[in-house]
Amino acid sequence: MKLGKIEHNLSLLAEFTAGNERAFDQFFRHFFPILRVFCARIVGDEIAAEDVAQESLVKAWHRRADFECYSKLRSFLYTVAKNDCFKMLEKQKRQKAFEDASDQSGIYDGDILEDMMHAELISRIFAQVDTLPEQCRRVIRMTFQEGKTPREISEELGVTVSTVNNQKMRGLTLLKGKLSDRDYLTAVVILTAGILH
Asked: Domains, the chain, ranges and CATH?
């Protein structure tokens, strides 16, 4: 759907602010590619850009009642995405400074610590994915573990592609509520990278 059509579809905006997941799905399909490119230009990393773009849309969904017009929604999305990109860059800068200082002092074995943290995080993610409602859990696992497309999943489960996308977003939203912000962002990156095989 082109931006002009979305901007003039007042009933779709009303459905979105009322909590209609179908409306969210349409906004997601429209804004996600745009935000991903916007974020990639700031952070220079495609996976991180996808993560920030998706998180921005989830934040908009949680604040959906605040948007009485499209310009406010669009402004919110770009502002949140930009701020989160800069926070990510600042965090990376601090992490690099810490690792550089620790390497010089000889008190930090980054590989071992990183492996331990990674293993613990994957364990937490697995535990939380397993608590999702059945259809959400199946869609999340089929998408991220098996690498299946929404069309393949819809055919296998006998549901529409829109239902698959809605269940995926619902599952990610539920995971966000179950994990800390840091763990959730890492989980999205890990899931997207297909590490949970």
From this structure: 3-86 (1.10.1740.10), 109-193 (1.10.10.10)
